[in-house]
Amino acid sequence: MSLFVEVQSVEKNCKVIINLDMVVEIAPLLNGGCDIFYADQAAVNGKTAMKVKDSYSMFQQLAMQVVSSDDIAKKVKALKSNTPLEVPKL
Asked: How far apart are CA 54 and CA 78, in angstroms?
């Protein structure tokens, strides 16, 4: 099941509906709004952007779980501490 959301496009100057399943990155802009990136094999860097007037927090609330690099480091450390360093000999 796809998740669609309505946003205010800067380029088109109107509301558009986008499929969030196709989005690979959402980046907040300093002057407000966001860049929404889609995978695009033909584009430079493999993605193309769409500017929207909507706030980053609107998209953040749709995330299942926001994970920071510190969260990942803690999880890796916990996994390493539970993993035996040496396989016991039979």
From this structure: 37
